[in-house]
Amino acid sequence: MIIGRHYINEKTLVPKVVIGTLIMIVAIFPVFTTNIVTLSTIILSGIWAVAVMGFLLILRTGQFSLGQAAFMAIGGYVSAILTVRMGVPYWPSFLAAGIISGVIAFIIGIVVLRAGGIYFSIITIAFGEMVRIVAMNWESVTQGASGILTRAPDPIMMGNFEINFAAGAVPYYYFMLLLVTISALFYWQIDRTRIGGTFRSVAANPVLAEHLGINLMKYRLIAFTAAGVFTGLAGAYYVTFLSVMNPLIFDLWKSVQIMMMTIVGGMGSIVGGPIIGATLLYTLGIYLSRLPIPNIQYLVFGGVVVLLLLVLPKGTGLVDQWGKLWRWVFGEPEDFQMPEEAGMDEE
User: Domain for residue 87, yes or no?
Assistant: First the structure.
């Protein structure tokens, strides 16, 4: 497309317009519906997307963690205990949930990241079960299996305008968007900088990376700690929205779900893949849970993952097929050439 002496690259313009339109629709979605079921599904999908981004960041360093639900549980318990049992205002408690989860991830990472490989995965599974068992039996703090009833976040005053979370799901929706946006910007920035390239080098060939002077432990610990912070925040907001925190919420299956969401969404984009995978699988799980078939979601989730592994090229997910989908829907834009400079004669 040529406008005057300037030209517009349609190959890059049209996708940007489509993505911009989708972002705008997401931003004003509550204008179209305030249905509690619809908004709840989107809110919880966004929260899981934050946790999946953390898992994928760890995976970028070549480590496979199956204990991410434990950090959601830690964040949830910190927030619930501080606000309900100790009377601390919600927002400082929310931030503390992320900080404490990150500190615990740092301490655990120093111990377990040296194991590497399958041993690291097994240790993270054991860590997740330890968190659940401690929460179940430390009744004086966690109230055991009965759990803690959480409360709505404190209202936010913006001039004369009050954002009241107790009034409905819309404030939760917009804070979820803020949390996803901040998390996405953080992970995207890491992924596109030198440290992100180092992560991928460590994952691709740790022996060569170490011979080149890269401190494997240092970079793995950075990823594990950063993921712990944002996963803790996701857990804190998750239990706030559910209005309850108990040891049964974040079991091993939740860590497996995070892994499945990563596989389905794809690992090509540290932001797009988790959002796609979390939204699709969580929404699918909600509808499957309504069927009168016990545990049908476990079977279907496994089937979806196996199907994608068989159909899609090795190591790819839905986000990695964006280019093919775009060409299939819209076709390939016609090539264009730079216009000739004014005053130059054609040969």
Answer: yes
